[in-house]
Amino acid sequence: MWMLVVLVCFLVWAGVTYWYLFGKRSPFSLESVRPPGPLELDPKERNTVLMQGFTRAKVPENLDAIVIGSGIGGLTAAATLAKLGKRVLVLEQHDKAGGCCHSFTEKGFEFDAGLHYVGQLHENSLFKVILDQITEGQVEFVKLDDHFDTIVIGSGEQQRKYTVWSGKHEMEEHLKKQFPNDQEALEKFFKLMKISARQTQYLATLKLIPQWVALFLLKSGIADLCSSIFRLVGTSAKTVADSLTSNKDLQMIFSYIFYGVPPRDSSIVINALLLHHYKRGAYYPKGGASEIPFHIIKVIKKFGGNVLVRAPVNHILVDDNGAAYGVTVRKGQEDVEVRAPVIISNCGVFNTFQKLLPPEISAKPEVQNRLTSMTPGQGSLLVFSGFDATQEELGISSTNLWLFKSNDMDGMMDEFFSMGKDDAPENIPMMVITFPSAKDPTSQIRHPGKSCMTILAMVSYKWFEEWKDTTVRKRGDDYLEYKRRFANHLFNWACTHYPKLRDKLVYQEVATPLSNIHYLGAHLGAMYSAEHNLDRFQTKLLATNRCDTPVKNLFISGQDVFSCGIVGALHGGLLCASTVLNHIVYIDLLLLKKKLKRRKVRELSKKRQ
After folding, report:
1. What pLDDT, in 10s, does the model give residues 159-170?
2. 556-565 confidence digits (pLDDT tens)
3. Rounded mean pLDDT of 312-338?
4. For 354, which DSSP code?
5. What is the end-to-end Cα distance of the chain in Å, rounded?
6. Residue-wise DSSP of 421-464
7. Hey, where are the domains in the chain?
8. What is the pLDDT of residue 601?
9. Does domain 43-139+286-373+545-608 have CATH number 3.50.50.60?
10. Looking at the predicted structure, is the pLDDT value of residue 10 above 60?
11. Which class for 31: exposed (0-12), middle (13-18), buried (19 or more C-beta within 10 A)?
């Protein structure tokens, strides 16, 4: 009898598990992807999608969800829900949708706000499958030169230059040629890259399985027995680099794609993933970064939702039972109430918990615990420069240039961020230079005879804090002069590598952490949101920092869920959608990926016949 009971219990468990994993309707399908249509070049037509202003009349009826913030994390979550027939309203405080994926045009020059290049877009990669699904295959990506990054360390006679190439095997072999005495170190690091790329999914799984199960697996040691990723993710990049080689330049290569965290405080897994991300090629969206939100928004609207800009959410509404049920949007002098059973915040944990929730909810210990588990990230500064010349005339290419004053990133960052406000502008120790116009073949069609350059550097918010209560474009001459000092130093540094830039410069603007707050809603101007330090990647915090929150019906999406950048934010959106739907959409994506692979095999087989 007892065996029969055990058997019945097992069958029930197996049936429920199968239904949970495979029994629900998938938001993704082969049929939803179609060949890309022609680029929409008419600014008015594009603006009807990207710049539709908020009014009460434009809010769809019977909403299923509201998303605060139109960054890639929020749009991904919204599109995934929409593809299951949900009516989703995305509210954006800026006048253009897209977050860090939006582009803007000034004086005839087009700049990207945050997307400089992406990887993992080779045929049938998971990232490409995801993007094709949420854009219905309408975004085309241009593969950049195999030589996608150059790293320059030092200056003058002490300057060393290294090149990084994409390619499944070429990346490693090319670095070996430049570091002939560190063959073993490179082999070991590339093994770490492979482990990180293949096993990071287990870290994401911690956020999808029941929390008590995740914590049990971690505390019992079972997780460590299953995968080395749980140990690696909490190991600093510096510790690993020191164990591999004493060559400081090579150590720099292992961590050169910086996101505001020195190697001493960053996870080796994140640093390894960032380099691995471009192993199969670096890409840029044809038509510019705004192509991504432009086509995701169309999917959201197709299923009855909408994306509205100039819609600053100032409150998340919470009922007497502690459940979120809507938001208020500031429209002129009026607060417009919009209700939905699900609220998704894509504006970061600090903005969500500190600014949008009622004070009595924000003060609750469980909410404060989520806040104190993270620290704000470093601010960023961008210099946008426009030139009346083609890329051939300027001698530029799609290759990005990373510049470092020395090969001691920990020491450089410690010294720089300990400086006073007056000393900082002329002492920036590192920056990256990128040329969006050289990456997009349609740039010369849309902006003939013009080129643009973006310089990115990390800075401290405290250096700009005295102007925090001023209005954008009205911050005063002292502010303009201060940010101009940063721009002059960075531009002069860039001209030592591209001397033809200086004579062709006709436009320049500087975005500081205050600009990031105004245009992107970034907390303290941090482009990468909460700090991606070692504390954040301790496995217990990975398991507890989830998309659901202590407030019922309120969910978090974007970079604060898992990791930084466009890809990290997108996965934050998928994790959020999985949590809201109570359905792991990654299983659907992996099954779809297998279908695509089988279809490709059949197509190749037919061609051979």
Report:
1. 999 999 999 999
2. 999 999 999 9
3. 96
4. I
5. 59
6. TTTSGGG--EEEEE-HHHH-TTHHHHSTT-EEEEEEEEE-GGGT
7. 43-139+286-373+545-608, 145-280+375-525
8. 83
9. yes
10. no
11. exposed
